[in-house]
Amino acid sequence: MMFRRTFLKTVLVLALAVGAFPGLGHAQTGDAAQKFITSLAQKAITTVADRQLSQSDRDDRFRKLFVSAFDIPEIGRFVLSRSWRTATPEQQQEFLGLFEEITVLTWSKRFQDYNGESLETVSATKDGDRNWFVDSHILRAQGTQIPVQWRLKEADDGSFHVIDIVVEGVSMAITHRSDYAAALQANGGRVDGLLTIMRTKLDQLKAAG
Amino acid sequence: MPSNPLGKIALRLGMAAVAALLTGCATPPPDDDPEAKAEFEQINDPLEPANRAIFSANQEVDTYLLRPLALGYRYVVPSFGRDRISDFLDNLKSPIYLANDLLQANFTLAGTTVGRFALNSSFGVFGLMDVAEPMGLPSHQSDFGQTMGVWGIGEGPYIVLPLFGPSNPRDTVGMLAESQADPLDYYLQTGGRHWMYWTRMGLGAVSTREAYLDVLDDMQRTSLDYYSAMRSLYRQRRAAQINGAKDPDKYTPPPAGMSSVPANK
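Predict the joint structure of the above. Result:
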């Protein structure tokens, strides 16, 4: 009898936990979202500011950090927009590869100009099931703070990935999408034409160091 | 053929304007392609061929005149001096900021503008030092295009103005109205003070360009199509400034369009 009651209770608790609140086990909190951004900024700064490392080691670490923290395929699909569906799987693959290279190089160059700025998170807001906005600002030694909003996506296992950065109201993803759409249009909407432009751009970025 | 650089620039701009009139409008996509049509409307640039012609003429002015001046200014004047100049110029715009804060019915910001002007003009030595910011009165800018946006007037189609760059009909009207309404401008244009008017304008242009040196260099280096990237940047920035003025407590507004990520992977 005793056993049965305990068993029933257990079942009830499990049913409540699993059935009534699906996904509760993995649901993240605003605190966790803010911590993710704080730690990401900290890791990026430690990497670029580490003078013990050679430039190529720094680049490698920066790349690993960037690729693990950002959902580059998701951003890439958004940027390619409706042309994603008309692209062949090979084109999609090549696009994502080039997009990742260009994005990582762009950001590692931006971080080379790092000059003691720090990042402070302000708040985290949930948007729908899986998306979060984390508001933050960049503090500079001089001048006003720069507001930066991070858009995060929560994966099934509760891990976060960055899908957009909004600086002073300007979204990187939307700006990229406009930019890439124009490059596509200039090539009559052909994805192959876009890929050629992206390859050229990548070579230019690499040449510029 | 004018031989001085300014004459050449004027000629280039004139040619660009003629070319712009001849090239006309962008062709809207056919009705049977709703997605292309939605994209066309979202980009909001029916005068794109004309705009691109003016944009590239502006780029030449920038490459050969404004950007070198900004680089020289950065090289010659140390960062401390540049900050004093930009603080001074910003303080001179206080009457315009105040008028717009009031027109936007944003009385808290209007109070901030008055407080900043009083503190910076006195303790800040004629506005050279921004002493109000550390005292809890952060700087902000407001303009008449933004005010009209707050009133609910739409931006209209994207346009690129000769020399002034990215704009739209609403912001162009705002800019013209402000140039007429600025009491300081009015004062400087009378009684033989024209040189001060032009000095203020030239210094403002170089100081602003210097502030944007890194951002614009980065944008030009990393974008596939600089024109489109600038258009997107300008339109998002203006929308954010207007939304920020409507609801000052709110942080940057969430960008629209993320939900339109294609579902299939």
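Chain A is about 60% helix and 20% strand.
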